[in-house]
Amino acid sequence: MENVELLSPLVDIIFKAIFANPKNTDILSAFIKSVLNIDDSDFDSLEITDTNLKAEEKDDKVGILDVKVYTKDGKIINVEVQVAPSSELRERIVFYTSKMITEQINKGDNYEKIKKVISIVILEFKLIKENTEYHNIFRLYDKDTQTTLTDVLEIHTLELLKLPQVDDNTDLSYWLQFFKARRKEEFSMLAERSPMLQKAYEELETLSQDKSTREVYELRLKAKRDEISRLKYAEHKGKTEGKAEGKAEIIRNMLNRKLSLSDIAALTGLSESEVQALQQDTAIHEVLSY
């Protein structure tokens, strides 16, 4: 195993192979216990189930979660990994968590049938910029009176980039270091922390030595890189077009105020002919792409 690079447990196929494998419910249980403050008896049996969310109508948005489990008393827990930031991610997390509530109810069912749903989202970037905590818990409550409306919905965000430099020696921090680790030495040290981290490490070693797994892994990494590049390009394009549109609006205002072409050109850096083209209603973006 010395010459084989360990695969990242943050890539979805590796994450699922370790944590969504029915023979590894003890690993999954240990990780979830480190996140949630619920009775150990709830973990006497975990049922890993279909990760596809139901669509009520043909045009409904659907989603695929990384790991979805039912606890002994019926709680539904979604565990997923997000490695690329998105402007809509907060809303998407709420949507998927809410979907796990609505899919419990059929027409005519009593609302008392609804079981608690919990989303645990592991993030390789900073999502909650309002604080420095690596573990945030979101529920439905009144912030002024601290009154909980209902505990039927709960969202946990785990941000790897916020892990402290000085270890806080909690089981959760060890698991998050496992997800964040890249070098064999890091994984080996973490494996000494608990039997379940040891087992997770051994599973990762086995997967890393499998040729077909590595091939799919590389394809998934390429897809992730392509997606990140696409998002960055779209963001840059949006900013560029926004600046161009803003400059065009400024020039229109200058024209409306009867400034001379030479004055507008001097203020904006455009040529007089480009300003004149705007005045004659030519295409704004073509004029400003100098």
- Run of helices and strands: HHEEEHEEEHHHHHHH
Give the mean pLDDT: 82
Ends distance: 56 Å
- Annotation, overall tally of beta strands: 6
**Helices and strands: which structural class?**
alpha/beta
Task: Report the β-strand fraction as a percent range.
Answer: 5-15%
Helical amount among residues, as a percent range? 40-55%
Number of helices: 10
Radius of gyration: 26 Å
Shape: extended
Uncertain parts: 53-64, 282-290
Q: Specify the biggest β-sheet.
A: 6 strands, mixed
Describe the overall structure:
α3 links the parallel β3 and β4. The longest helix is centred in the C-terminal third of the chain and has 46 residues. α5 runs antiparallel to α6 and α8 crosses α9. The protein is built from ten helices and six strands, in the order ααβββαβββααααααα. The chain is an alpha/beta fold.
Produce a short descriptive summary.
The chain has 10 helices and 6 strands; from the N terminus they run ααβββαβββααααααα. With 290 residues, the protein is an alpha/beta fold.
Using brief descriptors, characterize the structure shown.
290 residues, alpha/beta, extended, 46% helix
What secondary-structure arrangement, pairings included, does this model have?
Blueprint: H1 12-19, H2 25-35, E1 47-48, E2 67-70, E3 76-82, H3 89-102, E4 117-123, E5 135-142, E6 147-159, H4 171-180, H5 184-191, H6 195-209, H7 211-256, H8 261-268, H9 272-279, H10 284-288
Parallel strand pairs: 3-4, 4-6
Antiparallel strand pairs: 1-2, 2-3, 5-6
Helix pairs in contact: 5-6, 8-9
